[in-house]
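Dear H.,

Thanks for agreeing to be a second pair of eyes. The structure we're designing against is below in token form, covering all 317 positions.
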């Protein structure tokens, strides 16, 4: 009767240790050099080549660049882990914050280029994203970590040195309106893009619905919402995607409203607004701005609230 209890206790202890490890996240390895290849995915010659290039750049500019590979970061996000490593290693000169860190976690198929504040003006989020997308990721997809990391480090150095066209978009489709690039948005992880999109489209979609369904004030909302449909979707679907949605809105709104205006319930709502000063549409009650009494301006409807987070120059393959 004693052994089972001891075995159960030991099992619970192991589970508790596992949960504690997940909560603490992946460990930060010691900074043993400019290239710390804990995942062992680089050839010795490649490590030496990258180290020599990063050392030469540091001697010429003072920028401190490091490369870290780890097998996995567990359940921790690549952004959080990169900040933790960056702060622990204290990359860059004090007061200049001119450090750069490249992290690759091959088992998680994730990577990130973390940039110190002092170099964000040169190695921008967009530039780091292009390096990941056009230089590193294609090599990783082909299974060549050696070339991907070496070329990525070379592109980072070249960008910091101001060499033009280092990681220019090479896909022909990126300059045309066809293909996936048409709806390519900023470099936000898809979970964040979905959450922010639900918030943005939930609000402007609600007001669009109200405008289409409501007589009178609906045309004011049509004009009022044009800037919102022009700007906010860029965060989710990029510039071309936002232009497409704006075109659909500008054309679709009046057509839909004119078609609905011929329906019996719409005519009844319009008549109620004129005669009673209020009308009920789709569960919403609206008051006419010209009705007597202490009716509040704006039709009596209100929006919701929420929160959202930003993203960095991360990637996956």
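And this is the sequence the design step returned. I haven't edited it by hand at all.
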């Amino acid at each position: 009767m004693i052994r089972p209890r001891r075995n159960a206790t030991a099992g619970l202890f192991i589970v508790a240790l596992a949960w504690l490890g997940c909560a603490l996240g992946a460990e930060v390895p010691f900074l043993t050099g400019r290239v710390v290849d804990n995942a062992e995915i680089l050839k010795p010659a490649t490590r030496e080549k990258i180290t020599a290039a990063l050392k030469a750049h540091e001697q010429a500019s003072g920028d401190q660049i490091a490369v870290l590979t780890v097998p996995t970061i567990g359940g921790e996000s690549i952004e959080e882990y990169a900040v933790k490593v960056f702060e622990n290693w204290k990359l860059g000169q004090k007061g200049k914050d001119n450090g750069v860190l490249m992290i690759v976690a091959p088992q998680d198929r994730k990577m990130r280029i973390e940039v110190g504040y002092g170099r964000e003006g040169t190695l921008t989020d967009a530039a780091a994203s292009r390096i990941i997308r056009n230089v590193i990721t294609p090599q990783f997809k082909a299974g060549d970590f050696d070339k991907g990391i070496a070329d990525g480090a070379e592109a980072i150095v070249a960008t910091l040195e101001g060499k033009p066209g280092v990681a220019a978009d090479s896909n022909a489709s990126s300059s045309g309106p066809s293909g996936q690039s048409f709806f390519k948005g900023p470099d936000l992880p898809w979970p964040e893009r979905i959450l922010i999109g639900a918030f943005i489209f939930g609000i402007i979609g609600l007001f669009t619905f109200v405008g289409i369904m409501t007589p009178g004030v609906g045309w004011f909302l049509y004009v009022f919402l044009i800037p919102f449909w022009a700007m906010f979707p860029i965060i989710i679907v990029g510039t071309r995607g936002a232009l497409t949605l704006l075109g659909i809105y500008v054309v679709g709104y009046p057509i839909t409203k004119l078609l609905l205006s011929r329906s019996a319930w719409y005519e009844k709502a319009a008549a109620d607004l004129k005669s009673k000063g209020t009308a009920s549409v789709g569960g919403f009650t609206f008051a006419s701005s010209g009705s007597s009494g202490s009716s509040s301006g704006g039709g009596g409807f209100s929006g919701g609230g929420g929160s959202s987070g930003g993203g960095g120059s991360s990637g996956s393959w």
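Two observations from my side: The beta strands are 35-37, 64-69, 99-105, 110-115, 278-281, 284-287, 314-316. The chain has nine helices and seven strands.

Warmly,
E.
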